[in-house]
Amino acid sequence: MILGYAGKFLEVNLSSGKIKETSFDDEILKDYVGGRGLAAKILWDRLSNKWERVDSLSSENILLFLTGPLTGYFPGGRICVSGKSPQSNGVVGSTVGGEFGVELRCAGYDGIIVTGASEKPVYLFVKDSDVEIRDASHIWGKDAKRTVTILTKECRELLKKRHPLYGEWKEPSLLYIGPAGENKVRTAVVAAKWSHAAGYGGYGAVMGSKKLKAIAVKGTGPLPDVADIRKVKRLIQVVNNNVYDNDLWRRWGTGSGGYEVGAKTSSEPVRNWQDEWHDEKSFGVDQFENRVWVKQYWSDFGCPTCCLKVAVVKSGKFKGAITDNPDYEMQAYLGPNLGIFTPEKNVFLSSLIDDLGLCGIQTGNVLGFAAELFQREILTKKDLEGIELKWGDAEAFSALIKKIAFREGIGNLLAEGTYRAALKIGKMKNVDVLPYAVQSKGIGIGAHGIRSGKDYPEIISYACSVQGGDHTSTAGLPLDSGGSELMEIFNDSGVYCNFNSFGIPRNLRFDFYEAVTGLKLTREEWCSSKALKILQLQRAMLLLGGPDLKWNPKIHDDNPFRFYEPLPSGPYKGKATDKTAVEEYKNRYYEAVGWDKNGIPKTEALQKLGLEEVNKTLEKLR
User: Fold this and answer.
1) Residue 596 Cα distances to 357, 535, 554, angstroms
2) Nearest C-alpha neighbor of 508 from the set 37, 74, 50
3) 232-236, long-range: CB within 8 Å, 24+ apart, which pairs?
4) Rounded mean pLDDT, 11-24
5) Is the bond preceding residue 601 a cis peptide, omega within 30 degrees?
6) Is pLDDT of 301 > 90?
7) Residue 19: Cβ within 10 Å count
8) Is the pLDDT of residue 28 over 90?
9) Count of CB atoms within 10 A of residue 317's CB?
10) What confidence tens digit (pLDDT) does each residue in 518-545 have?
């Protein structure tokens, strides 16, 4: 067994109630590492022969909760959630911070594989090798805070009863869904703590389709043994020292971006991306810090950045709304994207989104899309059942958020996500509304635009990503650059917080991998072989798609229509993405990753990587 791994996985069949342990050959772990990479391998091996027929919200889908060998060692604990995505019909490696991955490894497992579906609401309880499926009827329908409160108390009491000599138990780590996941809303998250979320991919809906309300884990063992513990400790300190030098991140996290990204780089969504610039100083991070923060520093397991804050609305009509201080993505999508420029309104909507178990990015994208349709009189007050969806009206947006979470009225349509909703509204209204849908392959674009050229995404970042609009996994050249999709695959497969990797020495993450596993892995080997294997599997499943949506690279390997429109204001007024430049860059990227001129992985590229079965399956697309 390779060092750095617990060596076994839990497999839970919710249809039969059977629980077993399973493992993977060392060669698979060497090639696919863990997390996102291993998820792609498992899904391909088990579902590729019927991928196009598998409904992501059916019992046939497989839901994965996977750690990586660096989980618990590289600063910043996370867990990777994956499966067939209800948004893209491909595979997304969606990670969420917290202690869950560390607890799971200390319980003796590298991951959990969930198959089938329960007939009634259940939750999974794991205490080391003691694993059981428990009734969740009493928490089905409960929001985030109530779910966490009830389950924390229940699990602690259960642990105390079963292990009375242990003393007082620290709360287990939880992953769970809110009402949105229960109602199979495609923008639902798998949540942790009050307000952490694996949002991209829509896996909260998959969890809901399986009637799995939560997973609670308490591990009492050590983390897996490593090859060189002295080197691991030394590398942890290198990462920590690098983080300590970044005062901005430690003080404000990404929350400094709500004003900065709009005012300085003109790349923030404003009123559904109709603009990307604003100079609203009322939305500056100092306003959040002074008006809504109640706790300035806290962090997840082993994280030196401590970028998390707690924010609460202290007065006015939204008094009492409490959540993490919104990070940049939540600030942007539930702020300027909706014409909102005050911390209190932003915190109010963020708190509601978190409580209902929705993704702030994906649902914010839907809300902005709906508001623009209302602005253009395509959707009417009657369509919205009395909601006057004006920019800046937090109460109107909160009413629509609730309709989406519970699939009520127009909310049932918008719960399908921006792209699917656009197709249905277009038919309903007999007008093409796709130009107002700012998404890529069913996934709303992260809150970083490309028109000004001053933010980090490139002109093909979203168009060619195997994770669509995911701003944490963007395509670009060179393939071994720090921000390339291949390097993000390593972060998501090693499973740790990539924020703590910013600014570290170029090869440190691979040194870390060797210190933990004992396996030598160079950046060159990763980018020319192992990462490409994972990328090709994700690309293949994305292109196979189905059963309700398929993607044609000639059409869909492109930016949203909006990004070709000139910016209307700000210092970069008039700038737009150049279509010819996109096509030229896209062709260079295709060649670099081994795809043909039509965006299909080439036979020779797949054979070189040992992916003959993938090649055979893709023949029908060529």
Assistant:
1) 40, 15, 11
2) 74
3) 232/73, 232/512, 232/515, 232/516, 235/508, 235/511, 235/512, 235/515, 236/73, 236/74, 236/75
4) 98
5) no
6) no
7) 16
8) yes
9) 11
10) 999 999 999 999 999 999 999 999 999 9
Q: Is 366 helix (H, G, I), strand (E, B) or coil?
A: helix
For 277, half-sphere exposure in the C-beta direction (CA atoms, 13 angstrom radius) is 18
Q: Do residues 443 and 88 touch, judged by C-beta distance below 8 A?
A: yes
d(CA 94, CA 79): 8
Give yes or no for a cis peptide into 269 (omega within 30° of 0): no
Report pLDDT digits (tens) over 55-65: 999 999 999 99
Cα 52–chain centre separation:
23
Report the pLDDT value the prediction gives residue 292, as an integer from 0 to 100: 93
What's the pTM value of the predicted model, to 2 decimals? Answer: 0.98
Q: Exposed (0-12), middle (13-18) or buried (19+): which is 8, by Cβ within 10 Å?
A: middle
Q: Are 554 and 599 in contact (CB under 8 A)?
A: yes
Angle between helices 394-405 and 343-356 (to 10 degrees): 10
Tell me the C-alpha distance between 363 and 180, whole Å: 11
128: left (phi over 0), alpha (psi -120 to 50) or beta: left
Question: Secondary structure of 267-309 in the HEC alphabet?
Answer: CCCECCCCECCCCCHHHCHHHHHHHCEEEEEECCCCCCCCCEE
Report the run of H or E that residue 164 belongs to, with start and end. none
* Eight-class DSSP state of 558: S
Tokens of 454: 């001053």
The 10s digit of each residue's pLDDT in 178-191 is: 999 999 999 999 99
* Sign of the CA dihedral with 340 first, then 342, 344, and 347 last: positive
**CA pseudo-torsion sign 412, 418, 423, 427:** positive
HEC profile of 499-525: HHHCCCCCCHHHHHHHHHHCCCCCHHH
Q: Which amino acid is at 504?
A: I
| pLDDT interval class at 298 (50, 70, 90) | confident
What's the whole-number mean pLDDT along residues 129-149?
Answer: 97
Q: Token pair of 130, please?
A: 């003691």
How far, in Å, are 234, 387, 392 from residue 381 at the CA level? 61, 6, 16
Contacts of residue 177, defined as CB under 8 A and 6 or more positions apart, other chains included, come to 188, 189, 190, 191, 204, 207, 208, 212, 213, 214, 357
